Amino acid sequence: MKINKSGAKFSAIVKIGEDLREESRKTGKEFLYLNRGINRVVNIDLSEIIPMIDFNSDTLQYYPHSKGMFLLRKAINNEFFAEKTSEENIYVTAGGMNALSLVFQTLEIENVYTHSFYWGAYSNALKIAEKNQLFYDDFEDLRNNYKKYDNSAVIICDPNNPTGSKADDKMLFEVLDLFSKQNTTVIWDGPYRRLFYDNTDILYQKLLTYENVIITESFSKSIGLSGQRIGFMHCKNPEFNEEFAVRLLYSGNGINAFAQILVEKILSTPEGKKAAANFKEKTVNDIGKNIKLLKEKGLLTEEFYNNETPVGIFVIVNKSYNELKTKNIGSVPLNYFTKRTDFDVENYSRICVSVPERDFKKYFAKF
């Protein structure tokens, strides 16, 4: 049997979690699992939402529309874009990774630039799509050298994974203004932003003014539904959308109907909005306290943030994977997220700070 090998690798982050749990099983040690990017402060309370769903309905039991259910696309248009775009520009996907993978495959382009600190899945998805991954240092680099990125695509992930850094929106739009004057495609991948903002945030509406921006979004982080694997893609380019729609259809023949109905209820009903707001409030509160504790203990690598604010669900700490493991803390070595050589990458790790404050404080008290 001949295999068409992509060169992509299975997620090493998943393997880290499996190894830690196996060690816990064998030794009885309890670990604080900060290696995976899941909001674990609290689960979203769905108790008032589930009774609204008719599990015997044709809508739930039959094939959903290949672009996504209209009511969900309408709810997304209202929640993110204040109804200033068309539902025809919105495509429901099986999470953010599915959206990104299909975007990479659809774009006829050779080079895709990511931040020098980047989500490892970008690399593997780009390999499968046969695209070159190149890097930019920060948003000042993008602004000051914008012509370098002509005829390429640039991924903007803000807040960033793995650093959790949040750039000033003014700087972000200065970069977009420059890119709009040339042939640069911007892939706006911001699944962490809406955890910290509600629908009064006008960023997504402002993105509509740019013809060269593709938005990929996920509900895994903003409302804690990573297990439902649901997100969306938005683009205003009809030719791109036509090809994306074909690839989306044949990648899964529609997205899970239950997940779509569930998210639509969360976005559009008073009960759903209340559940989402409570989830965000509790999660953001503990994230903030956990980051504050790291600062107080001198564990946060503030030199990597370039005057940006760490607010995301991840941060970089100045301890190695093994140093954290000796304190029964799971993490991911920073070399999984960068190819930079201007510092000793082995001495740093990425951790998820979206866990209950009491648990976080208990384990980091050991430092």
Describe this protein's structure:
The mean pLDDT is 95. α3 runs parallel beside α12 (257-268) and α13 (270-296) runs parallel beside α15 (357-364). The protein has 367 residues and is α/β, with parallel strands linked by helices. The protein has helices spanning 12-27, 58-61, 70-81, 95-106, 120-128, 139-144, 169-179, 193-196, 203-207, 219-222, 238-252, 257-268, 270-296, 321-326, 357-364; strands spanning 32-33, 90-93, 111-115, 132-136, 153-156, 165-166, 185-189, 213-218, 231-234, 309-310, 314-317, 329-330, 332-333, 349-352. The protein starts with 11 loop residues before the first helix and ends with a helix. The chain folds into 2 domains: 12-44 and 273-364, Aspartate Aminotransferase, domain 1; 54-271, Aspartate Aminotransferase, domain 2. The chain contains 15 helices and 14 strands.
Give a short synopsis of this structure.
By secondary structure, the protein is α/β, with parallel strands linked by helices. The protein is 41% helix and 14% strand.
Secondary structure class reads alpha/beta
Number of alpha- plus pi-helical segments: 15
Poorly predicted segments:
none
Helix content: 40-55%
Q: Please, what is the average pLDDT?
A: 95
The secondary-structure element order is: HEHHEHEHEHEEHEHHEHEHHHEEHEEEH
Euclidean distance between termini CA atoms: 53 Å
Instruction: Give the biggest beta sheet.
Output: 7 strands, mixed
- CATH architectural group of the largest domain: 3-Layer(aba) Sandwich
Tell me what portion of residues adopts beta-strand conformation.
5-15%
How many β-strands, per DSSP? Answer: 14
